[in-house]
Amino acid sequence: LLSIASRKGLVAAAGPDQVVIATTESVRKAFETPKDGDSDIRTFEPQLKIPMPMRVSQLSFTADENYLILSAESGGGLAVYEVQSLLSGSTSSAFELSTNGETLRALVPNPTSEKAELCAIVTNNGNLHMANLKERQISNPLKNQVSCVSWSSKGKQLCAGLGDGTIFQMTPEGEGKGEIPKPPNVGDFHVSSLTWLENHLFLSIHTSNNQSPPTSIYHIITRQPPSSYIFQKLTDPVEPFGSDKTPHHTILRIRDFPPALQDMLIVASTAGSEMGVLSRSKIPLATDRPADSITGVFTTTEFLDDTKRPTLPMTDSMDDSTPIGVALDLSGKEKVYKPIPSDVELEESPGPLPGFWALTHEGVVCAWWVVYNESIRQATVYPHLTAVEGTSAPASAPTPQAAAPAAASSPFSNPGPSAFGSAAQLGQKASPWGSANTTAAAPSTGGAVFGSSGFSNAAAPSAPAFGKPSAIGFGQSSQLGAKSSPWASAATSGGASSTTPAFGQSGFSSFANNNDTSPFGKAAANSGASTSGGFAGFAGKSGFASVNNEGSGSVFGSGNKPAASPFGSSSTGDTAFPAKSQESSNSPFGSTPFKLQSSFKPDGSANENNAKPSGSLFGSNFGSALTDANNKPAITTPTPRDEDMGSAGLTEETPRAKTKESLFAAQQ
Predict the structure, then answer these.
(1) Which residues in 234-257 are b (16+ Cβ under 10 Å) and which e?
(2) N or C: which end of the chain has fewer CB within 10 A?
């Protein structure tokens, strides 16, 4: 229910009765606003609101960022909005497509701009269809008993996780290309989440069907063609710790972050309020294991200072929050002030930093910088930031006033009868395609692919977008709020500073509800019903819930069309990174006190006595010459080549060395 179009600098989020759209820059600036009384909620007014008579269960931008796709919690269907029309103030969909009354479990777009018209959709009945925006059609079922899907990085093939625990590799037309068996010693489990990492490398999460509470098992699967497999079990990075909720996992991927980070997978689960990390590095991230056992392979990664772990704020009633959407923000253009607080000589990052945003069931958006210390020290930047890739211009900054009714209609605004809740057949044409395609669908797995824009030449500000930092790493929080809408933007500042940060200052912003009642309902129930949307449990012996055929009219968008773009003209010199303040650095947001801290304590058993806090992703002197548990120099291995995952007959394999399930800790 949260999606970011980084190339255009837009964020979309779904509430109980509307979808709000804002520029990412305006959200970052909202973190700078002062507190309103004792509340940590900041007032934030989005640039555009699309009224919704029904709840939305899926929301995502397409990979080329030309469309925003929504699906209804009841009756399913797809409503496709043209982004350019939204920027002009239109609230009408360009067209709608029927899913024959079936609610969607997942909406997973093709990750490439070249094939951005394709989108895989999985219904709650377990039927996999392919949608095509160009043809405005949805295919007949390509596969049954499907629980989740993941595209190859080049978007030429996809893998479907099945209810029996196996994985089916196929083309977008439905042609089978291979099967991956269930890992050994896994019983009555379905594939609840799947990420296709490389040609022959996969991350699978299997979740039990009939256990209470459900159990999830993680594996890195290495295929040795033609039919041999290695299953490397990983420790769950987001243990539910007694939660009885059925977990839905969402995985975001940061890859090829120089100088040495090959992969960082950020894992969110609806069964917990903390985020976890799986990583793969060309140099070891810890010294308590032999270097060759933890180099170039995936490992579960923990923080020595657990206050640096991304953790959602608790509710006013002191209950845990539930993530209902996560996304990467790659639209930042400004440098970050003091990215490593322990380094007094380092004033700012060499370039922009990636952001990680999460939307809670109460409408609070939480955001963190992703700070890779060795990258900061070696003056490298994440190459997939839009400011670094550089092509299209972002959406212009918002005007302060509300939008007025407007004239221009979408070039696609001839939807005809609503497809939502109707009995229209899937695949009305012979084409195996339908509509929809997104990059950062909240319930979807895998890493979104973002576009690019020109690198900003703005002067480097002296403070970060999410406030003054007191620590680095996934960490501090603060909150923003809105008066006139059920949204807000918020942030709570983080706890004590760490000298060896992992991921950077956080800011909790929120499209939050101003009322006492959460617009999303209780955390235990999540935003969507248990039988709808990508966050639903995979229940029943068959692993599939029945679907609902409700709804008669379009649930998306009134015909209101404001006369002027609510996104206004380009901003001048304003920046989301304010000048250095004289306020105490105890709070990353200046006047905002730290409100919520992680209930977890640092791992006292971890080795903390050797390395100086020279900075690493996980505070383990990342990039320095380390010695491992065998007193050997740390080993550097080459990055495995990620070939065209959609091509058949490839023989290159990923490293097969198994890693011990080591939990890395920062050295201080």
Answers:
(1) bebbbebeebebbbbbbbbbbbeb
(2) C
Q: Which amino acid is at 651?
A: T
Helices and strands, counts by H and E, the chain: 4, 31
196/169 Cα distance (integer angstroms): 10
Neighbours of 560 (CB within 10 A): 15
Per the structure, the complete domain to which residue 252 belongs is given by 2-525
- pLDDT at residue 426 in the model: 39
pLDDT score recorded for residue 557: 38
Pick from 132, 154, 144: nearest CA to 78: 132
How many angstroms separate the Cα of 214 from the Cα of each of 280, 327, 624? 27, 25, 41
pLDDT tens by residue, 105-135: 999 999 999 999 999 999 999 999 999 999 9
Q: Cα 34 to the chain's mean position, in Å?
A: 28
396-417 per-residue burial string, b: 16 or more CB within 10 A, e: under 16: bbbeeeebeebebebebbebee
**Cβ(105)–Cβ(96) under 8 Å?**
no
Tokens, residue 142:
């390509």
Separation between Cα atoms, residue 306 and residue 604, nearest integer Å: 11
The tally of domains found in the chain comes to: 1
Say how far apart CA 300 and CA 295 lie, in whole Å: 13
What pLDDT, on a 0 to 100 scale, did the predictor assign at position 125? 96
In tens, the pLDDT along 509-534 reads 444 434 443 333 333 333 333 333 33
CA-to-CA distance for 433 and 305, rounded, in angstroms? 48
Residue 623, CA atoms < 13 Å, CB-side half-sphere:
22
**Angle (CA) 608 338 360, round 5°:** 80
Over residues 158-210, the pLDDT tens digits come to 999 999 999 999 999 999 999 999 999 999 999 999 999 999 999 999 999 99
Q: Which residues contact 518 (CB under 8 A, 6 or more apart)?
A: 315, 361, 362, 363
Would you tell me how many other CB atoms lie within 10 Å of the CB of residue 387? 22
pTM of the model: 0.67
**Is the peptide bond prior to 578 cis by the omega test (within 30 degrees of 0)?**
no
Q: Flag whether 665 is in a domain.
A: no
Read off the pLDDT of residues 247-299 as tens digits, 9 standing for 90 and up: 999 999 999 999 999 999 999 999 999 999 999 999 988 888 899 889 999 99
Tell me if the bond preceding 34 is cis, omega within 30° of 0.
Answer: no
Instruction: Tell me, yes or no, whether 504 lies in a domain.
Output: yes
Nearest to 232 by CA among 649, 665, 662, 641: 662
Q: What is the token pair recorded at 663? A: 């939990």
3-class secondary-structure state, position 92: coil
Phi and psi at 115, nearest 5°, equal: -120, 35
CA atoms within 13 A on the CB side of 136: 13
Residues counted in the chain:
668
Establish if 314 belongs to a structural domain: yes
DSSP assignment letter at 216: E
649 in any annotated domain: no
| 483: CATH | 2.130.10.10
Q: How many CB atoms lie within 10 A of CB 215?
A: 14
Give CA torsion, residues 618, 619, 624, 627, to 10 deg: -90
d(CA 56, CA 79): 10
